[in-house]
Amino acid sequence: MTRTIGLTGGIGSGKSTVARLLEKLGARVIDADAIVHELEGPGQSLTAEIAASFGSHLLRPDGAVDREALGALVFRDAAARLRLNQLVHPRVGGEVARRAQAAREAAVPVLVLDIPLLLEVRGQAPPARSQLGLDAVVVVWVPLEVQIARLMQRDGFPREEALRRVSAQMPLDEKRRLADHVIDNSGALVETESQVRALWTKLAGGPPAKTEKAR
Question: H or E segment at 150?
């Protein structure tokens, strides 16, 4: 029987690092953000809808959505961000559910659904936990100042822009309270790896522990 785990976090939390570590340990990972990239590619119907709603100037020369330009727009305009969510989330949620069902039919032992906005309550959220058949939710957590510093370093954002983007999501402290397991990714990589290995032992053997936090 497939154990299905919802993995989430926040921008700059290092969720993708944790997803890669779980994949190395044997999990099948379905990456919602990678699906967004696919659906916003050249010739896709979602790409056409985004262009119609926000303007064709947000397309790159190859016809794909210019995600950097679109992000600059929606992170400054809550109404635009909601409109984008209404276009994107149903498509992505449907594709995640389709791929998850295929993985279960293939008897994948541990399935990880890597969904950045899994626990969001603002606007048009992705499918609920029950709809995705999740056995547990894992949140990758770091302090707010670590999120901001990582965005400033990684993307070259000034502090104001980094804070704006972090504030557009549910606070990580709130997500942490909703989690079944928490990975604290604020330290060294070796510390994160140790937590992920401990979590894998719980996920791959025995029933999911719905109240225990992995520190």
Answer: helix 144-155
The amino acid occupying position 139 is V
CATH class of 3-204: alpha beta
Confidence of residue 41 (pLDDT cuts 50, 70, 90): very high
Q: What separation in angstroms does the CA of 80 have from each of 43, 64, 68, 125?
A: 23, 19, 15, 15
Q: How far apart are CA 199 and CA 29, in angstroms?
A: 15
Structure-token match 């969510």, residue found: 85
Please give the angle made by the CA atoms of 137, 186 and 176, to the nearest 5 degrees.
Answer: 30
Beta bridge partners of 3: 110
Mean per-residue pLDDT for 175-180?
A: 93
Q: Which helix (H) or strand (E) holds 37?
A: helix 32-39
- The percentage of the chain sitting over the pLDDT mark of 90, rounded to a whole number, equals 82
Nearest-angstrom CA–CA distance, 93 and 124: 11
Spell out the domain ranges in the chain: 3-204
